[in-house]
Amino acid sequence: MLQEPVIVVKNLNHYFGAGNLRKQVLFDINLDIKPGEIVIMTGPSGAGKTTLLTLMGGLRSAQEGSLKILGQEICGASKQQLTQLRCQIGYIFQAHNLLTFLTAKQNVRMSLELHDKLLQDLDAQAITRLEAVGLGDRTDYYPENLSGKLRLAACG
């Protein structure tokens, strides 16, 4: 049985800046990624790797071409559409941006507060997510004393 790609990129171009300062950073990217497939991107600094990943993560709208994530077109997507998409995918940043003055539970709880439908007993939900990634015994630890697993719990 053939699996449908979860990411489909066709003739994707992306630019930064405007007018005379406009610079193209992605040039006619074509790519299909199927469920469970592992993809490694390499290239020199400035080649567009991070830009492509932020587009595929729904962190910005694609400008030209087609980028479908889980069947949803991202080219020209609104902020609301991107937010809805991000609720369906996980994205782990290289720089995880956890607040160092908050405990693991407080960091995860804060990310849960961003979801309208998760308004009840956020402490219990934060602990459940920490337990799911093997950090249930470290809810009161600060980020510098934890592994990258906290990022997974915070992303949901």
| Secondary-structure element string | EEHEEHHHH
CATH class identity of the largest domain:
Alpha Beta
Q: Within the largest sheet, what's the order of strands?
A: 2-1-3-4
Low-confidence stretches: none
Number of separate domains: 2
Work out the helicity level: 25-40%
So how many helices? Answer: 5
Query: How many strands in all?
Result: 4
User: What structural class results from the helix and strand content?
Assistant: alpha+beta
Envelope shape: globular
Descriptive report:
The protein is an alpha+beta fold. It has 2 domains: 80 residues, P-loop containing nucleotide triphosphate hydrolases (Rossmann fold, 3-Layer(aba) Sandwich), CATH 3.40.50.300; 52 residues. 28% of the residues lie in helices and 19% in strands. The protein contains 5 helices and 4 strands, in the order ββαββαααα. The two termini are 30 Å apart.
